[in-house]
Write a structure and sequence with these properties.
The protein is mostly helical and 251 residues long. It is 63% helix and 6% strand.
């Protein structure tokens, strides 16, 4: 499985042998502490999609293409669990939408879901709470993993880093429809990913995971904004100012 790795200096004073043989110790961004909960959330999300694809569409207004839904529904739970073992989330909370998260994080934000059927929303609140809490936890404790797993933009990462847990719970209750399928327009990716279950091939699964990581990496430059003559991103500067204003407005 493709894994994100960075280098970390050895702690303490290294011996001469350590300096020559192993001056750096690899540190895995996607550790088991990250991947374990991620696999569980992916599995729960896929099972929810397989059980209630139409209800999910009513609640979020977004769904996977019909061929993907049918292929997902055809898998039994153990095979869906195999598909869920990805080094990135198979769901999104629009973490690339900086304006959305600046608005949701604001204490003045008002729920827009009063007109929607309560049953359609309540069905997904539990998953939204679990998913957003995990994203909040990673943003707080392992920002590099949050960017890899969820594709968080730098500004959204900062919003989550300053978001009170009580406000996060409120967002999950009022906006469970923020959770949507990851890359719903990429039918070929989803079909390839779902094909890994019957094949049960680690090499084939790695190929699907690599495609997902490539799509994630391709998205990141598009979220950095325009670069000014001074080398700074104009969009990022404006967004950081709004984020600072948001933090200042918090009690």
């Amino acid at each position: 499985m493709p894994r994100a790795v960075i280098a970390e200096p050895l702690s303490g004073a290294p011996t001469a042998e350590e300096t020559q043989a192993r001056p750096w110790r690899p540190y895995t961004v996607l550790s088991n502490a990250v991947l374990g909960p991620l696999y569980e959330l992916n599995r729960e999300y896929l099972q929810t999609l397989a059980r209630t694809p139409r209800q999910w569409h009513v609640a979020t207004q977004e769904r996977l293409p019909d061929p993907v839904c049918l292929a997902l529904m055809a898998l039994d739970p153990p095979r869906r669990a195999l598909v869920a073992r990805c080094p990135f989330s198979l769901f999104s909370a629009r973490f690339h939408d900086d304006e959305l998260w600046l608005r949701l994080a604001s204490p003045a934000a008002v729920s827009e879901n009063e007109a929607r059927p309560e049953a359609a929303l309540g069905y997904f609140v539990h998953f939204a709470q679990a998913a957003l809490f995990f994203a909040w936890h990673l943003a707080q404790s392992n920002p590099a993993a949050a960017r890899v797993v969820f594709g968080m933009s730098p500004l959204t990462l900062g919003v989550f880093g300053n978001l009170a847990l009580t406000r996060l719970q409120q967002i999950a209750r009022e906006h469970p429809d923020v959770i949507v399928p990851r890359w719903p327009e990429r039918t070929s990716f989803w079909r390839t990913l779902l094909d890994t279950a019957p094949r049960a091939s680690e090499q084939f699964a790695n190929q699907a995971h690599l495609v997902g990581l490539q799509m994630l990496a391709a998205e990141m430059p598009l979220k950095e904004g325009r670069v000014s003559a001074g080398g700074a991103s104009e969009d990022r500067v404006n967004q950081e100012r709004r984020a600072a204003s948001l933090r200042a407005s918090r009690p």
